[in-house]
Fold each of these.
Amino acid sequence: AQSVAQPEDQVNVAEGNPLTVKCTYSVSGNPYLFWYVQYPNRGLQFLLKYITGDNLVKGSYGFEAEFNKSQTSFHLKKPSALVSDSALYFCAADSSASKIIFGSGTRLSIRP
Amino acid sequence: GAVVSQHPSRVICKSGTSVKIECRSLDFQATTMFWYRQFPKKSLMLMATSNEGSKATYEQGVEKDKFLINHASLTLSTLTVTSAHPEDSSFYICSASVASGTGGTQYFGPGTRLTVL
């Protein structure tokens, strides 16, 4: 079965430090990969996506993600975390017909 | 750009009543709209996919007679929860895609919190 895994339920980082939120996928073919962020009681906001080309994708709010085909990973990164980055982050893969498979989500907590 | 709205943002209803949730793409025409359900501290569960002018495609285990979806235009889709029960209480999120086929980015609405008493 196709799936997207986010192995960490929660990631805690001090403000100003770099952050990484992990994501691996098991999807047939060459999937398109996405990161979304969700703030409390809100819908998901699109951060970035990978389709093809450069393995490092830059997105909104200073976030970027690195695609690694051999490791089937698409980790989300930011060089310097802000307290306002605290939210729930979802990795997703789209392998066919615009149907997206979501990971279970990772709660990112940035302490001042 | 690519803004999706949902109305209402929050609704409380009595058991047995029906509730309609609207999803609108405000500044683009959406070829496809999606309805998700999210349980507390859980990921999104796709309920159905709808294309304008055609019947929605429901995911396995989702009762199409209970969750009625109407995609009346390229900017409006509605989800009606019929004869709601407390177990239907959840956070419902819609999304709209600007392109059909693989790779179309989905833009999400802010969600609707449904509480059934």
Note: The CA atoms of residues 4 and 25 of chain B lie 4 Å apart.
Amino acid sequence: QKEVEQDPGPLSVPEGAIVSLNCTYSNSAFQYFMWYRQYSRKGPELLMYTYSSGNKEDGRFTAQVDKSSKYISLFIRDSQPSDSATYLCAMARNAGNMLTFGGGTRLMVKP
Amino acid sequence: EPEVTQTPSHQVTQMGQEVILRCVPISNHLYFYWYRQILGQKVEFLVSFYNNEISEKSEIFDDQFSVERPDGSNFTLKIRSTKLEDSAMYFCASPRPGLSRGEQFFGPGTRLTVL
């Protein structure tokens, strides 16, 4: 079983749709959860950073963590074509520890 | 916003040659990290460096790899004898001053091609 799993997609949605991206994980020691956006052949860009269970909102992005189910989500409201990218979840046991990444979900937002 | 910078952006080398990848992390931070991403695969952790010492390393980071801080601001990743399977994007990352050290900001990467 992989430590962090993501559906690779591609996920195709029309502009303006609400997008839901998800990751599951197996290691209950993970406490810090991140979402990154990566454009082709570029470095990952940090979108959201959360600690433990709960919700966090930043603009059009909402991150949810359910540690009891080992399941995290990223919601994107009013999706735009510029949101088309690969979204990576990442997690760590403690702040400053190595990040373990999922394989990424490719999102395509069509105008 | 301060950014992580990396040089070169693309490095082509022959198998068996040594390569040095350079990173300038966000200033005034003691933590930095190296990751790699083979084309089409996930981002993988290589090594973390704190206060001039390796704090964590993965199985990938074997004796062929080394990391140094040659001066106050630059960090390097050296691969002593490159193999074809070392071809990948190499990213360094560091936290930003004033934010949690868990928030890792990535550089643009160096694309390493081993022929």
Note: The longest strand of chain B covers residues 43-50.
Amino acid sequence: DAGITQSPRYKITETGRQVTLMCHQTWSHSYMFWYRQDLGHGLRLIYYSAAADITDKGEVPDGYVVSRSKTENFPLTLESATRSQTSVYFCASSVGAGNTIYFGEGSWLTVV
Amino acid sequence: GESVGLHLPTLSVQEGDNSIINCAYSNSASDYFIWYKQESGKGPQFIIDIRSNMDKRQGQRVTVLLNKTVKHLSLQIAATQPGDSAVYFCAERAGGYNKLIFGAGTRLAVHP
């Protein structure tokens, strides 16, 4: 049971580069989420998706792009990385709107 | 924003004692609450949840209590073990699309 798989787990990139964090879930969950976790701000929602081809902004969407062409994948792209986007990124999923949200193991991103 | 990491409140307990971790939530319209455990370097792990029409729910060694009058949530861990050492987050859901708002977190340190 693979659950939620994030890749890469660790990434160092330079300011201005494009970076894509991948998220894959094997549960066929309808909902998928991207959170970032920072010192001083806890866990904050970046984007979420209720189903394939349906995405919406969360609390801190600026500088990020998402897509959901397939139910099982929800990639997060930083179009032009900035140092303020150095963070730990967590992908999550849930069966439906009122169900438990399960998290992946995280992707550690450093922008230099 | 809320503080995590260096500024995280810490609860220290002896192995075998019971632990109580408290959380104040912000929105009286929240209808669903979850407790997550996060070990160092890992993603948040679901522990237990409770809906607003309940005031208590029990799991294996854990109990969640909900007091809607004062907007307070607590997690009780019975016979705390070293493996329970982690950061514990409460989360509330105030929107219909499963958006979770996370609390600041409490670090639980279990001493032998």
Note: Confidence is low (pLDDT under 50) at residues 1-6 of chain B.
